[in-house]
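ingest -> validate -> predict -> emit
validate: passed (alphabet ok, no gaps, 355 aa)
predict: started
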Amino acid sequence: MANKKKSAAKLPPKYLDSPLRLLAVSVETLLEKAHRTVRSWRGAPRLPLTIVKHNAIGYPGGVFVQGRVMAARRIRRPQECDSGWVNLSRMIRYWLTDEEPYTQVEIRCGDQVQEVNSDEEGYFEATFATEALTEKIEWRLVYGHSDKWRNTGVITPPDQFRHIIVSDIDDTILISNAASLWKMIKTTLFGNVLTREVFDGTTDFYRKLTADGSPMFYVTSSPWNLRGFIRSIFDRNELPKGGFFMTDWGLDKEKWFTKSHRAHKIAAIEKILAWYPDRPIVLLGDSGQKDPEIYEIIAQRYPDRVELAMIRNVSIVKKRQLDVEAIASHSRTAGTPYYLCDTTADMEQHYTSLD
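emit:
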């Protein structure tokens, strides 16, 4: 009998690309080291290390803290008259980070103190078990970087609120023109905080959703690097403050560029549902990517928790519109109020009909 050769095509995809991915990670690491070495030779000082806040969220029984250790960034304030190239230069600064891996962070929540280490990309997180109402936490870097405690606010909903709100960002809140590649590039890379626009009526509607203190969570596949940029746009438009679930973009041993859009969003929503187990959830997204399919999965897994799901129609392809409408119709038949909406006013009308 002839010897059978093992077929590489039958191996799981992660094994097929891992050697190349590991090589790419190694090259990226060497380039980062070279960049730091050149900067040192030139005598260019590194900006001080700082803790960048990602989340500090209170929920019944605990507080979730998340952030990143990195060198401070100097980014010039935007002007409405800035050219596209000036805006692009600023966006590149948002994207480029000088993170500090494996650095110890000390976090104090009430009378509890935890010491955690940042990972290879500078990220860290911690969870505190507490029944006390927590309005702020304190944190500091150790190992000589800083010995000064700094405090930051905790987003904690009141004891009584109606529901949890989960919303996508791009083309759900922010006009990103994802249906057209060139328009999307022009909008996202060549615009700034002052030129980016939200859909008409969005601020009033979102403030209505959270008027009773209902917690708001922004769940997006955009990278953490852009959190400050997005938060500035939200503040300018007076959108509700809330928790952020974003992604780490870049090469590492586990992924090529970013984790699965679907896996990221489902995991985030399930974490939020676990924090507030006795409250229903309202889901807001758009038809541009996979929000309709993701929300359908959530409705199937948690049929008694999804109070309402709404998808903003941003698709220019008729087939996609029909596919999303089919998902919405199927979900309504299964008992979940699920709608494809052309405008924010349509969303508000469906929300009001719940009363």
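Residues 13-42 form the longest helix (30 residues).
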